[in-house]
Amino acid sequence: QQQVKQSPQSLIVQKGGISIINCAYENTAFDYFPWYQQFPGKGPALLIAIRPDVSEKKEGRFTISFNKSAKQFSLHIMDSQPGDSATYFCAASKGHLYGQNFVFGPGTRLSVLP
Amino acid sequence: GAGVSQSPSNKVTEKGKDVELRCDPISGHTALYWYRQRLGQGLEFLIYFQGNSAPDKSGLPSDRFSAERTGESVSTLTIQRTQQEDSAVYLCASSFSGRPDTQYFGPGTRLTVL
User: Fold this and answer.
1) Contact assignment for B45 to A101 by CB distance below 8 Å
2) Homologous superfamily of A4-93 in CATH?
3) Could you give the CA distance from residue A87 to residue A52 in angstroms, rounded to a whole number?
């Protein structure tokens, strides 16, 4: 119940295209769903996050879509750029008061071709 | 630098030796997290500190792993009698309590056990 499943494992997109990464979870107690971007040799960096009271959140070219009933959420990268090439992790967290442990998906390696 | 720092950046050790990994969180961040990331894989939660207390040690893989935090600041992760399967990047992150959206990661320590 603590798992977060993520797909695809890797993704190749042409410059200007849309990148879509999907995640699914089981534990309905999760109340915070962030996406992280990680470049080689660096720690993950928070990209965008959503709470279950909204179905969509957009920040620039990045959008999270959240489907509470299906227990799924996805990251959409519009107008994908070569600089977006990185590994993306979805995560889920519970414990609003104390920011308790995150459960991470296995990651998606995105390559955006110029 | 105002970010999370970790030292050493790289550590090569022989099987059976003890190692200590250090994390300096962002000043004022009361929550601190340790994760392990094996090559090409997602992040595995190890332990979470709230202040100097560790309310959640559920991720520590064995009794060879321990961690402490002092002064609501620096944390050290100690691995005793290292094994080859301990080889991974160990990531530290910190945040304000109850604010997982403020979680920032350090660059990690790459541990190689020969």
Assistant:
1) yes
2) Immunoglobulins (2.60.40.10)
3) 24
Give B25's DSSP letter.
-
Assigned domain for B111 exists: no
Contact between B47 and B36 (Cβ < 8 Å)? no
Residue B102 has, within 13 A of its CA and on its CB side, a CA count of 17
Q: Is residue B113 part of a domain?
A: no
Q: Side chain identity at B60, as an amino acid letter?
A: L
Q: What is the pLDDT of residue B59?
A: 85
Those residues of chain A that have pLDDT short of 50 are 97-99
Give the nearest partner residue to A106 out of B31, B41, B105, using CB atoms: B41
Which of A43, A98, A105 lies at the smallest CB-CB distance from B91?
A43
The enclosing domain of B50 has a CATH number of 2.60.40.10
More confident residue, B98 or B49: B49
Domain residue extents for chain A? 4-93
Residue B112, domain member (yes or no): no
Count of A–B CB contacts within 8 Å? 71
Q: pLDDT tier at B58 (50, 70, 90 boundaries)? A: confident
CA distance A33 to A108: 16
